[in-house]
Write a structure and sequence with these properties.
The complex is a heterodimer of chains A (about 500) and B (about 375).
Chain A (H helix, E strand, L loop, with lengths): L3 H9 L1 H13 L13 H13 L2 H7 L3 H22 L5 H9 L22 H5 L2 H7 L4 H28 L6 H25 L6 H4 L1 H18 L1 H6 L7 H4 L15 H16 L2 H8 L5 H21 L4 H4 L6 H11 L3 H18 L7 H18 L24 H42 L4 H9 L9 H12 L8
Helix pairs in contact in A: 2-19, 3-4, 3-5, 3-8, 4-17, 5-9, 5-10, 6-9, 9-10, 10-12, 12-15, 12-16, 12-17, 16-21, 17-19, 17-20, 20-21
Chain B lengths: L7 E5 L4 H13 L4 E6 L5 H4 L4 E4 L5 H8 L6 E4 L15 H24 L4 E5 L3 H4 L6 E4 L11 H14 L1 H7 L2 E7 L1 E3 L6 H10 L5 E3 L5 E2 L1 E3 H16 L8 E4 L5 E2 H11 L8 E3 L1 H18 L7 H8 L2 E3 L2 H7 L7 H31 L1
Parallel strand pairs in B: 1-2, 1-4, 2-3, 4-5, 5-7, 6-15, 7-12, 8-11, 9-14
Antiparallel strand pairs in B: 10-13
Classes of the chains: A mainly alpha (about 500), B alpha/beta (about 375).
């Protein structure tokens, strides 16, 4: 499976190879899953999950047990919708009701669909969709409600888009349309996931009161994919880049791919990256509200991949020539870093913001705006994890808690109590240390005495004022003999 | 409290870059207000006819300020008058330079505040500066807020603004006279009519000093567009006239869009169609030695170099301001984005250059003739 090209790549990029090995060796899921216990239908669902997704399957399968099945089903249902929407062999008259009524079939334990074209890659999922239906009926009603609500709204949105698209055959027109499309295919997913997290008490309910945050989560991922897949989509005659953007640079969309328009294509690309990048800080804000580790991993891995992909695409003309993606080594490194905590994830974002800033060129019409967008990411990180300098750390400042707020009287009392406790601990440790030292000294003195050391001589010598040992051997000898005399050895 | 329609507002430094913009905005936003200007320089005729009064005074001269306030009783004073030592003077350590800066920025503020209090006015908006905190050159300031104490500024400008701000916000004024004062600390302001910033950065193209970046180039820096600074001043004035929650407080204000320092320079050069073919990264240590050498060369030849150790320190620092306090107390949210602001400021500078060139052309014609 490993090609010679890959071998050569990883021999010259050893740190990426290290990431792969580390991820494979050391990564353990937060929640282990017992595959033996899964029912037939569950196994079937997991099989479809692996079939339809490379990257999402891994993070979904490591989710908290409470959300494992709901999220798997949610994903498969959305994938089912997507499979119908993508299939160009289904005429619009048939497609529209299918999309709009998809939520009606969810609890139908027998509903399947085999109307997809033979080349549709996820065809099998819809053919065996009854397994999903049966599992759907088993999950908690609250989850069911969330999933069918999102399914209904997404189906409607996709139907609107498909109809509209068929009418114009020109692709997306304005930036607003573009963001609306991303809302239907990704923003809604963000909403559904967030409602599931909050329902399961694994994320801060505040996330539901700040809908722009979950919207940005979906938009950032979807826009990144749309930017990266420009070539593939163009070859498949799908046009997601809004005309409002590309028409500033070329008159026909296909002109973007002409070699003589290379600079123009890069300018257009940087505007697309800019639109997405402005949402990065809101994504970080969102992820700060996730409480549980497996959910954090679930949301953070795709976001880290997305910002790395943005960096890969930015001012990279190859993107217009062929499909590009981040290497497996980079991906493993990013997965390691995005499955720790918010701070390491912030470091990833800061690092890529700076990489984008380094690639930014003053000849680009969006040069300053991109610089500001990168600055916005850094500024957000600073507001949560401030860099301390000698000037911001104040000497003799009033007692403060970890959150930087002044303490209440109860906290103050508790702090005093804690401090007293700490002092007592230090005393105990000191006593233990000195007791040990004293014991060892005693042992050594005892051992010396047993071996015949004359402490009486040493003491009387000290008494007569010889505190420092004599410098030369002769003096020492005379000293020793002067003490030895009374013992009767002086007859010589 | 409701904003009255009929108020007397005095803007000191009303003929300057910031002051003139504040006057124009006041006349627009509060058509009933009677606006006056105190400045050494006479405002343009266009503005002059819309003013209640023009008070000519040199704020460094106490008697001159007193005389100007004779039989004038404003409801609120916006004190923007001051001097910003530009270019090499920013890093000057000469006593006579310090005396001059201090006499205008500190003594001037004392004179204006004293005259204000004597006139019976109890509302005072002071244009301080973020340099009160950041002018020590030796520290980075990430997202710095108002809790950082003053008093470490070493450069003349920041030092003089610190003295003045501390004087204005001194609680004894509030206690004795019931003064309601606040201080705004803007970062570097750009915009049409800006006398220094764009010119300084533009000059680097002519001097061929655009091919290097000192340090790693990752340091963020804060700038702001003039309209936003003006808005903050008007909000502060309105606050002191109504809820008075800003009284006794200082506020950092910026565009809330920090950008990488060296990107900002390059963005301005690009506005003048200059894109350096390559930009070399110069390690700080090396630049330091070069700056030191350049200072000696400058000293020996008597010329004016751009490179010295002070400007190197300014170029490698991270400085951006946290505006949360201004947002929550004053309701300050910038209205013009920085990228747009840079375009507007550069367009204006291009016009200025064009007029200057034509003027020079005419002059040359005359000499030839």
């Amino acid at each position: 499976m490993v090609s010679a090209k890959e071998v050569a790549y990883y021999l010259t990029h050893v740190s990426e190879l290290r990431s792969i090995i580390q991820w494979k060796t050391w990564h353990n899921p937060v929640h282990e899953r017992d595959e033996e216990k899964a029912t037939e239908d569950e196994k079937q669902c997991f099989k479809y999950l692996h079939l339809t997704s490379r990257s999402f399957a891994a993070v979904i399968l490591e989710l908290h047990p409470e959300l494992l099945m709901p999220m798997t089903i949610f994903y498969l249902i959305l994938r089912g919708l997507d499979t119908i929407e993508d299939d160009m062999t289904i005429p619009i008259e048939r497609k529209e009701p299918l999309l709009r009524d998809f939520d009606q079939h969810l609890s139908d334990e027998k509903w399947t669909f085999d109307g997809n074209g033979p080349n549709e890659k996820d065809r099998a999922l819809l053919v065996g969709f009854d397994a999903v239906g049966r599992e759907f009926n088993k999950i908690k009603p609250a989850y069911k409600k969330i999933i069918s609500d999102i399914c209904k709204r997404m189906g409607d949105g996709m139907a609107d888009y498909a109809k509209n698209y068929d009418e114009q055959a020109n692709g997306v027109q304005t930036i607003k349309d573009y963001e609306l499309y991303c809302h239907y295919v990704a923003g809604l997913v963000g909403e559904g996931c967030t409602r599931l997290f909050v329902e399961a008490k694994l994320a801060n309910p505040i996330l539901l009161q700040k809908p722009e945050l979950m919207e940005s989560m979906g938009q950032f991922l979807q826009q990144t994919n749309i930017i990266r897949d420009i070539r593939e989509d163009f070859d498949d005659k799908r046009f997601f880049w809004p005309k409002e953007v590309w028409s500033k640079y070329v008159t026909k969309f296909s002109d973007l791919f002409l070699p003589e328009n290379r600079e123009k294509a890069l300018h257009c690309q940087s505007e697309m990256v800019l639109i997405a990048l402005r949402r990065a800080d809101e994504c970080l804000f969102y992820m700060a509200g996730v409480k549980e580790q497996s959910v954090f991993n679930f949301v953070a891995i795709p976001q880290a991949m997305a910002i790395a992909t943005q960096e890969l695409c930015f001012r990279n003309y190859t993107m217009f020539e062929r499909n590009i993606k981040i290497t497996k080594g980079q991906a493993c490194g990013l997965m390691m870093e995005s499955t720790q905590n918010l701070q390491t994830l912030c470091e990833v974002f800061r690092r890529y913001a700076r990489k984008i800033h380094k690639k930014n060129s003053p000849s680009d019409p969006h040069f300053l705006e991109i610089s500001i967008a990168c600055g916005k990411i850094e500024r957000w990180i600073e507001s949560v994890f401030p860099t301390q300098t000698a000037r911001t750390l104040q000497a003799g400042a009033i007692a403060k808690g970890a959150d930087g707020k002044a303490l209440t009287p109860e906290q103050e009392a508790k702090k005093k109590h804690d401090d007293a406790e700490a002092k007592k601990d230090v005393m105990m440790i000191m006593i233990a240390v000195f007791a040990t030292l004293a014991f060892i000294s005693l042992l050594m003195v005892g051992a010396a005495w047993l071996a015949g050391a004359r402490f009486d001589l040493a003491f009387s010598s000290l008494k007569s004022g010889n505190i420092v040992p004599p410098k030369d051997a002769q003096e020492a000898a005379s000293l020793a003999s002067s003490f030895a005399k009374p013992s009767g050895h002086g007859e010589l | 409290m409701q904003l009255s329609d009929d108020l007397r507002i005095l803007v000191t430094g009303g003929s300057g870059f910031l002051g003139a913009s504040i006057v124009a905005a006041l006349l627009e936003r509060h058509t009933g207000w009677r606006v006056s200007i105190l400045d050494l320089r006479r405002p343009s005729e266009k503005i002059l006819i819309r003013l209640e009064r023009y008070l000519q005074a040199d704020i460094a001269d106490e008697s001159s300020v007193k005389a100007a306030f004779k039989d004038y009783h404003p409801d609120l004073v916006i004190h923007t008058a001051g001097i910003i030592p530009a270019r090499q003077l920013r890093y000057s350590t000469r006593t006579e330079d310090w005396e001059r800066v201090k006499s205008i920025n500190y003594d001037g503020t004392r004179h204006v505040l004293a005259a204000t209090l004597t006139s019976g006015c109890r509302r005072f908006v002071y244009t301080s500066s973020c340099t009160t905190v950041i002018d020590d050159l030796d520290h980075d300031y990430y997202n710095v807020d108002e809790t950082v104490p003053l008093g470490l500024a070493t450069l003349h400008y920041g030092k003089s603004k610190t003295l003045a701000e501390q004087h204005v916000l001194d609680p004894s004024h509030a206690k004795e006279y019931g003064l309601l004062a606040c201080a705004l600390r803007p970062c570097t302001i750009i915009g049409p009519g800006d006398p220094a910033v764009i010119a300084l950065i533009h000059d680097l193209i002519v001097k061929r000093e655009t091919n290097f970046i000192i340090g790693d180039g990752d340091n963020l820096y804060d700038w702001m567009y003039i309209d936003n600074a003006v808005l903050a001043h008007i909000l502060a004035a309105e606050n002191l006239l109504t809820s008075q929650t800003a009284a006794g407080e200082a506020f950092f204000i910026s565009n809330q869009e920090p950008a990488y320092f060296w990107d900002f320079l390059a963005a301005i050069w690009a506005e003048f169609d200059h894109v350096p073919r390559r930009r070399w990264y110069i390690p700080v240590g090396l630049a330091w030695v070069a700056g030191w050498a350049a200072e000696w060369v400058t000293w020996a030849t008597g010329g004016a170099a751009t490179l010295d150790r002070g400007s190197i320190k300014d170029g490698i620092r991270t400085v951006f301001l946290n505006n949360d306090k201004a947002r929550s107390v004053l309701g300050y949210v910038p209205v013009v984005g920085l990228a747009e602001g840079v375009r507007l400021a550069c367009d204006d500078f291009k016009k200025q250059m064009a007029t200057r060139n034509t003027a020079n052309g005419i002059l040359n014609e005359k000499t030839k003739g």
